[in-house]
Design goal:
Radius of gyration: 22 Å
CATH class of the largest domain: Mainly Alpha
Number of helices: 17
CATH superfamily of the largest domain: Hypothetical protein, domain 2
Strand order of the largest sheet: 1-3-2
Helix content: 40-55%
Strand content: under 5%
CATH architecture of the largest domain: Orthogonal Bundle
Distance between the termini: 55 Å
Shape: globular
Number of domains: 3
CATH topology of the largest domain: Endonuclease III, domain 1
Length: 328
């Protein structure tokens, strides 16, 4: 594939259709004071300002398996309440858990709170700038560490989220993301090599938007894709005499069976979330909590209820004192 042409196409698309999101702001207050420039896509390409790694991490943890439109109001309210990592480190965990309501995966709220305390206590409130050190922080894995390095510090490295992985799997390899024929390490090197020099930040942002808005998982907009002529997946579709790869995805695949799954409302994750939601209101007697879960959410098994309570305690999301459960 012509890599330079692909980069040019993606950047041209991004400048027209990219999303202006609050966690992508680069020192917005300084920018306003210094130049009066309104935050736009153009500022994503500026090198004079950098993002606060705290805001990057807050947004990344919120965005894990959560849609952007749900995160937007929560992020802005969270940052308004705790604008710096020092502010968050001084908050009670219960306060953070209550603020997190509606985002799911409550463990992320605890990780975020622990991360803030660690950064303040170990690094004097200044985030480390290496992947190795960042990954020692609670809740920070390879992806989030790389996101901080690219988005906050402008390093030219690839950030592989589900959108970026899907784009390169299709465009470069002609397969879906779950069928990449090379090792994760090789794929990461492959992605790193694609990053335009001195443009790691806007490049990764552009790809994320392109995957979210054009090269989507189930219904890619191949008819309107500016990179269509470079896409190997599209060429494969045409070899099968299908107009677009989007149509090719809808054709029957041999030996493909749907995975059987239980409804989400019967999963442990659902029950864990509802227990935490109830405790956000106030501490409660354990038997009253069990009856609430049985009556309102269909959790009738005492054994399962006990196992879920135990898992929440082990994850330090709730606390049991005597016969009462609470968030702190």
């Amino acid at each position: 594939m012509n890599r330079a042409l692909f980069q040019k196409i993606i950047f041209a698309w991004f400048e027209k259709h990219g999303r202006v999101l609050p966690w992508r702001v680069k020192n917005h207050e300084d920018a306003q004071r210094m130049s009066g420039v309104r935050e736009t896509l153009a500022t994503y390409f500026t090198k004079a300002w950098r993002r606060d790694p705290y805001r990057v991490i807050v947004s990344e943890l919120m965005l894990q398996q959560t849609q952007v439109d749900r995160v937007l109001p929560k992020f802005e309210h969270f940052i308004k309440r705790w604008p710096t990592v020092l502010d968050l480190s001084r908050a009670k965990l219960s306060e953070v858990m209550i603020e997190w309501q509606g985002l799911g995966y409550n463990r992320r709220a605890r990780f975020l709170h622990e991360m803030a305390k660690r950064v303040v206590e170990k690094y004097n409130g200044v985030f480390p700038q290496t992947e190795t050190e960042l990954r020692t922080l609670p809740g920070i894995g390879e992806y989030t560490a790389r996101a901080v390095l690219a988005f906050a510090y402008g390093q030219d490295i690839g950030v592989i989220d589900t959108n970026i992985k899907r784009i390169f799997a299709r465009v470069e390899l002609g397969v879906e993301a779950n069928a990449i024929p090379i090792s994760p390490k090789e794929f990461q090197s492959f992605i790193d090599f694609s990053v335009p020099k001195h443009h790691g930040d806007p490049w990764n942002q552009a790809l994320m938007d392109f995957g979210a808005l054009v090269c989507t998982a189930k219904s890619p907009k191949c008819d309107h894709c500016p990179a269509k002529t470079l896409c190997i997946a599209q060429r494969i579709a045409e070899e099968y005499r299908v107009k677009t790869y989007a149509e090719f995805l809808k054709t029957p695949h041999r030996n493909q069976q749907k995975k059987q799954s239980i409804p989400f409302e019967q999963t442990n994750r659902y029950f864990r979330g509802r227990i935490v939601d109830k405790l956000r209101e106030s501490p409660i007697h354990m038997e009253e909590l069990r009856m609430h879960m049985e009556t309102n959410h269909g959790l009738s098994s005492r054994k399962k209820f006990g196992e879920i309570i135990e898992s929440l305690v082990l994850d330090k999301l709730i606390y049991i004192r005597g016969s009462r459960a609470s968030l702190d």
